[in-house]
Specification:
This protein is mainly beta. It has two helices and 15 strands.
């Protein structure tokens, strides 16, 4: 079933896209990407599926449980498994849930993704998962799906061909002397930018 341009379900794998991120580019052969894949306890934009429209919220602790259970989580470009950029087992992806949400650190060696980062064509992060435990509620007449347990399979860097389902903070690209910022600001968030 399709979620329009916000997210998709592929063979049961749900993908949710978010703008909560910070992208840092370091050097010409490796891109160092840092940021938040998702901010927990925040509502997504409305998501439309075959059975209707709803919003989604990831509960605090959901990613921590998923990471404790996961043998590996891949990092992809635009949820495309043919654009596999590495993973936890490969040693170039670190994920952790903190008080804000799911934080990612990734070293990317793909020249096209690095070029997209330098050109400001990356718009956000996303994650793909299988739901394990969720609860349906409603707020202001809108159905809400609260995710409590998921099987996290992948996180994705998104280019401008995708529209994130979660509002976010910032995309920053650094190349020693240049800095480009694209995106929205959320005053409640702090963003780490590491210069190397």
């Amino acid at each position: 079933t399709a979620r329009g341009n916000i997210g998709n379900t592929y063979n049961g794998l749900v993908t949710n896209e978010t703008n909560v991120n910070d992208v840092t580019y370091v050097g010409s052969t490796v891109g160092a990407f840092f940021g938040y894949v998702n901010a927990v306890e925040r509502l997504s934009k409305p998501i439309t599926e075959r059975l209707g429209t709803f919003r989604e919220r990831v509960s605090a602790g959901t990613f921590k449980k998923a990471l404790n259970r996961a043998e590996d989580v891949r990092i992809l470009e635009n949820h495309d498994f043919t654009r596999n950029l590495g993973g936890i087992k490969d040693g170039n992806l670190k994920l952790e849930e903190d008080a804000i949400g799911l934080r990612a650190e990734a070293d990317i060696f793909d020249k096209d993704v690095i070029a997209d980062a330098k050109a400001g064509r990356l718009v956000g992060w996303s994650f793909g998962f299988f739901p394990i435990e969720s609860r349906d509620t409603a707020e202001d007449g809108m159905p809400i799906k609260e995710l409590h347990e998921i099987d996290l399979r992948e996180v994705s860097l998104l280019n401008k061909n995708h529209t994130p389902a979660y509002d976010g903070t910032l995309v920053a690209v650094r190349d020693n002397e240049e800095k480009m910022i694209i995106g929205e600001t959320m005053l409640a968030d702090s963003v780490d930018i590491r210069e190397e």
